[in-house]
Model the fold of this input.
Amino acid sequence: MHNEFDFLTQETFNLNTQDTFLADEDFRNEFLFGSDSLESKSESRAEYPQTPGFVYNIVKSSSTFSIRGVISDNIGETFELANSGDLTTLKSLRIDESEVAATLYYEISNLDLAQVIYDQIFNKRFPLEEDLICNISDPGFSWWYQRSDDAIRINFKSHKLEGSGERLKLGPIGDVCIASILFTRLENAIEEKMSLLEFSISEKHFIIKPKDRFHRVFEELSRIFEEGELDNNAQILRGLDDTLKLYLIELATIRKFWLHIEALNTNFDYSTTQNLLS
Done:
């Protein structure tokens, strides 16, 4: 299993050449999300879970935001080190001791999946007003999702939107090149589970239209994109090779984390109207 995660992680890193990674000096003009409400040291410190996950901060500049933090084997222990002034921990979080109270955490039991999220989302700069600045030369970072009564359509870049109707912004949940390869491989596996009227994959979009729009596999695929949910015993996973199975799990995991970030980012204007494009 580790080999499959390593393969997908390395492929994402190799192909994702347009993302902007942040060096230490890039944070000089950014500030912590929620840093204006830091608790004083005299107040009792919060209790943190003794579980794996992320310890992180959301930071913003005048026009961008980024997520910076660390993967932790034990969230509670990481906070203990930060609160005690451990310089290595504080440096990895790029904060000082006074900012620990504003630092966030996210629990995830599988550290391999945590690494996938980290490589895809952390330490990259995302625009606050993606819809306004994106164009052909800078198409943005988000995938876009549309669910009609009988089909799912994913547009991989905003400037390539085709057709009409309302679309849900999914966030930076995957690499287009990897998606094109693995969704193509997924077609035969899905056809063994349900009859398809249409299955189309290109560098622009992914479209799937089943004969039975109430089929369980179709609903499971919808939940991956809408909710970031995929049960371990999902029918869509049965019979898939390890690479395809892990890829769908990764998509759901990244999407769920991005929904979590959107819920926190109310100060970044992630309102319902901005997450939808007509």
Q: What stands out?
A: Residues 11-21, 34-43, 267-278 have pLDDT under 50 and may be disordered.
